[in-house]
């Protein structure tokens, strides 16, 4: 009898621990300010079109606990990401809550109980009038009655790993508003400084454009175009955390950034070429090749961005790195041509400004690659410091 009892206990324990590694329910009460709940979700990444938010529970045995570590470059995309969690209000208070995810183009969300269902579509595609928050696109509000239980289901069509949602949290409305206020205070000083300098660049753009219309001098036209795309590039970086200026156009953030970066280099090289038009060198020949490469690069980049649903594939990212290396080598060649003619006073000043610009762009790429690992810097601080240098070099 004793042996049977031991066997029965062992068998029950085996059944208990062999069940699905289900995530814990999200328990919320009045004291819950902000909860990071990513690990409370189960996920399924699939191409099965038969799955929907109503029958997802039937596939729960195939689901696993979710975390940011699931974002792997080896994932075969595109696929549909399904996320599911159980919510419990453990208090006798009615809670007004805000759910938030990391940035994404589009996420469909369902919050349902036995009596009601709330459906929301959040992300960059959301219209202004439909957003819960103008500052954070990927958020929506919902309510939980005392001791109520609800299910939350998320669906995202994942085309690129960059915008696969990762961080998920739930907060009270008061805590959410405080979070936005803290963000304003954190970024306000740096944004204000960069905005003032960026305004200086924009004024310089109009000045050079005006001079061009008066004198028809091409170097003023090329420098105006360079200033315009520098303005766009830095404005994107200023806005990268709150997406205030561009709104839903932020869907094209990565593409606009790379195009403006490329055209900055192209028009600056055109500017240098127009100054050195009388110099005898192979620079003009190399320049023609560079322009052809840039045009092909921009055409492919634009086409692949739409093909991959507002993102860059692994091949496109590799191509980005190769182009930046090629353009850096070419800009060094252009600066060397300036150095050879630096006896002319105004060319000497252009040479000094160009050195600052190239050093700043190079520093930016190095810090973005190694800044987090070596110097414990976040990307925003990196862009603030290096873009200041870029702006100073431009104004010189």
Q: Specify Rg, calculated over alpha carbons.
A: 27 Å
Largest sheet: 7 strands, mixed
Uncertain runs: 5-20
Principal-axes geometry comes out as: elongated
User: What integer is the average pLDDT?
Assistant: 77
What is the assembly state of the chains in this entry?
Answer: single chain
Number of strand elements: 11
* SSE string, helices as H and strands as E: HEEEEEEEEEEEHHHHHHH
Portion in helices: 40-55%
Query: Helix/strand-derived class?
Result: alpha+beta
Q: Please work out how many helical segments DSSP would assign.
A: 8
Task: For the record, give the distance between the C-alpha atoms at the N and C termini, rounded to a whole number.
Answer: 92 Å
Estimated share of beta-strand residues: 15-25%
Main features:
single chain; alpha+beta; 8 helices; 11 strands; 51% helix; 16% strand; elongated
């Amino acid at each position: 009898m004793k042996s049977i009892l031991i066997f029965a206990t062992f068998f029950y324990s085996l059944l208990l621990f062999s069940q699905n590694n289900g995530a814990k329910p999200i328990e919320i009460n009045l004291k819950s300010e902000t909860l990071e709940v990513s690990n409370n979700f189960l996920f399924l990444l699939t191409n099965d079109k038969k799955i929907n938010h109503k029958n997802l529970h039937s596939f729960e045995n195939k689901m696993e606990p979710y975390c940011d570590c699931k974002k792997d470059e080896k994932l075969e995309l595109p696929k549909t990401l399904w996320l599911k969690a159980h919510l419990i209000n453990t208090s006798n208070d009615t809670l007004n809550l805000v759910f938030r995810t990391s940035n994404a183009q589009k996420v469909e969300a369902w919050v349902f109980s036995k009596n009601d269902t709330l459906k929301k579509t959040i992300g960059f595609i959301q219209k202004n009038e439909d957003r819960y928050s103008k500052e954070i696109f990927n958020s929506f509000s919902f309510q939980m009655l005392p001791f109520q239980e609800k299910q939350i289901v998320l669906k995202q069509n994942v085309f690129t790993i960059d915008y696969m949602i990762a961080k998920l949290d739930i907060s009270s409305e008061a805590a959410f508003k405080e979070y936005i206020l803290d963000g304003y205070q954190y970024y306000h000083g740096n944004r204000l400084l960069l905005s003032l300098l960026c305004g200086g660049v924009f004024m310089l753009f109009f000045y050079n454009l005006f001079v061009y219309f008066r004198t028809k001098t091409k170097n003023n036209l090329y420098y105006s175009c360079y200033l315009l795309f520098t303005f766009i590039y830095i404005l994107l970086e200023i806005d990268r955390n709150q997406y205030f200026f561009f709104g839903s156009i932020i869907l094209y953030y990565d593409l606009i950034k790379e195009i403006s970066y490329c055209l900055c280099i192209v028009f600056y090289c055109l500017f240098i070429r127009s100054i050195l038009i009388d110099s005898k060198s192979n620079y003009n020949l190399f320049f023609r090749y560079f322009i052809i490469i840039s045009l092909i690069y921009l055409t492919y980049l634009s086409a692949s961005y739409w093909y991959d649903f507002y993102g860059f594939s692994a091949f496109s990212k590799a191509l980005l790195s190769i182009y930046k290396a090629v353009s850096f080598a070419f800009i060094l060649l252009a600066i060397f041509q300036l150095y050879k003619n630096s006896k002319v006073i105004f060319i000497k000043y252009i040479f000094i400004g160009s050195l600052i610009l190239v050093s700043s762009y190079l520093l930016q790429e190095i810090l973005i690659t190694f800044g987090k690992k070596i110097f414990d810097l976040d990307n925003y601080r990196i862009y603030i410091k290096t873009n200041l240098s870029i702006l100073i070099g431009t104004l010189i």
